[in-house]
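Handoff note, outgoing to incoming analyst
You'll be picking up this chain. Sequence as last confirmed:
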Amino acid sequence: PGNWGNVTLCGGGNGGSGLRTQIADGYGGSMSALQTLQTDPGAKVGPVNQGFADLLAASSDNYASWVPGDKDPRAVVVPLVDFAGCNGQCTVTVKGFMSFYIDSYNGGAITGHFISMVEQNSVKVVATTDAGLSGNPYLIK
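Most recent structure output, in case you need it:
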């Protein structure tokens, strides 16, 4: 209750404006498994929609033309956290990471491709057996 999967990164602070910037510009710092993050509670529909619109407008590429290693804002690495037991603002632990290419965003639905990508200067990718996710993934390709 109260959490919609948002966390505070980049010192953006809580609130819609910081969240929009974090989605559009991404996070340029380092992050590791077992690191903790603060949740950013509340449904911020407008800022989330605007952040994804900004992100998608920053690239005219698509997955078919994307080459791993190219700097495309649609190719993202997302921290996986478990929100179980979190009500309101709380601290969550990073369990691992997911690489994903965002094709589109519409009304809360993100479509795209899971990708195999190793970030430059990364230390190690940590495999997770159970990241606490639920639902059915749908792979396009």
